Amino acid sequence: MLTLREKYYDFDQISSKVFKCRRDDQFFTMKIVSILNEENQANNGVPYWIIREISILKELDHINIVRLIDVMTDGPDLFLVFEYLDNEFQADFLKNPKMFMYPQMKKEFLYQILNTVAYLHARKILLRDLRPENILVNVRTQVLKIALFGAARTFEAPLEAYSSSVGCLSYRSPEVLFQFGCEKYSTPNDVWAVGCIFGEMLLHRPLFSGPSDVELLDEIFTLLGTPTEETWPGVTSICGTCALMGPPQQPKDLAKEFPMLNPDGLDLLSKMLCLCPNYRISAEDAVKHPYFKGV
Amino acid sequence: MDFDLENPLGNFHDLPCDAVPSLFLIESDHIPPPNYCQSFKASDFDISVRRDVVSLISQLSCTFDPVLPYLAINYLDRFLAHQGILQPKPWANKLLAISCFSLAAKMLKTEYSATDVQVLMNHGDGGAIFEAQTIQRMEGIVLGALQWRMRSITPFSFIPFFVNLFRLKDPALRQVLKDGASEIILKSQREIKVLEFKPSTVAASALLYASHELFPFQYPCFLRAISDCSYINKETVVQCYNVIHDITREEYESVLNINSTSDTPVNVLDEHFLSLESEKTNGTNVVTQEQDFKRRKTTDYGNNRTVPFSHFHQC
Predict the structure, then answer these.
(1) Boundaries of each Cyclin-like domain copy (chain B) (predicted)?
(2) CATH T-level fold of B27-151
(3) Is A51 on the interface with B (CB under 8 A)?
(4) Disruptive mutation site among A46, A55, A73, A149 for chain B (greatest number of B CBs within 10 Å)
């Protein structure tokens, strides 16, 4: 078994715990994860969330997912070796000006995101925390990469926080916001997040940005209307506190909110942002939507 | 990211048909390689070592969800396939058992007390207490050997899918069937020969065995549903069913101290396949009726075809 320094060399620091390194003529990104701290002592070994996350990453082999190639241990540290993404891959792709110059590029990238989500869902893997910060794009080659488990080069949030349910709320679905803190995620939540990203591509700003679940739900219902038992069977028993519903609101006309979008795009967007999770389009069906004809 | 390890298909009752193949396609990645069984058959000592560690894991897991020991034993088999035979030292077996148990508990997010684990392992002898660092190092060795691919696809993953094919409407009856099949899966894992089959095949065979025992009049319908499933190889299911049948009968007879007979009539699954073929030739339809749940009684223990399934709990 080759040791870390025998297997990889030419280390070049990118950020505090992220390095570029080389083996033969190939470059990799190596991320150091320390597994010894106060919390981990009580767990007697590698924490469960690290094992679970790595187990998933090790199974994934998809062009649009940053690949985890190797895992090595050295004393109290884990070394995660990812495929290397050169400088052409820009993080936080929604801020890239070229995104707004070429409408076709938006469609291409949306398709790649949905294709990736469909791939994951087919393997019973949920993303749970998809957001633009975890997406990198190469606008020259039009290839998009989703970085998971802090694989993004500029991802600096502590891993412990990343694995918890605390995080950005803007891409959480209404059924998750209603039951904030509940661990019962499911595939429709990921599709909702893609719908929010789609909307953000079009508007150049987050679709929903309230700082709390109550405010977010209000923004959602302002745009899409307050759910009823007719539009969302079972919603009354889900929402728990009636205060989360707020006063009844009528849905806005999406065609007026998104004037740049053609009818197929409006149809897809409305289906991804369907309030009822059971009626929301699946990622598998979304990639087959007429909006992507010609992609 | 997350996944429901216990029931990855159960969360998706509206699962599109062409999404199902994924689990069937990747399940082989999470079982020992095909030559694993052959290497064990070559050595009685190896078999006894495996049984020893399996027994230790079962002791550790007796108060937990049955999926936990199943997963831990899967790790054990994959580890042995990778690392070869263990050293003949009792403490090494215990350390491996603890590590596989611990890793399975973590994958399932199951809380457990490290102190209780140590006490259980040392019950009845003056064995050494393993330091946390030792367990951690052993966990690292197992993780490395398994290449950190700890989300094993087990037979439990396929049970909801197959049960849905059976179209049992009563939730209580579905649960009885699932429980029966789960018990069979747990028992059969202790025998090496079941490891030759893929998890989906084990699940299908266990469900058929349980349904034959619990719902004999609907059994032909269930059998046809399994046979029509394009992801299942019918002949392999027959073989696996026979292995499960032998294991279950062996355990039953060992408890009652009944000698097994070498006079084996047509195996029950073969018989039903034959009758299905003849029914298709005749163009007749099998009439199914709802039956109250009732175990069949038999007094002819020597007849293989009517040996009842017995419920013996390990813990």
Answers:
(1) 51-144, 157-246
(2) Cyclin A; domain 1 (1.10.472)
(3) yes
(4) A55
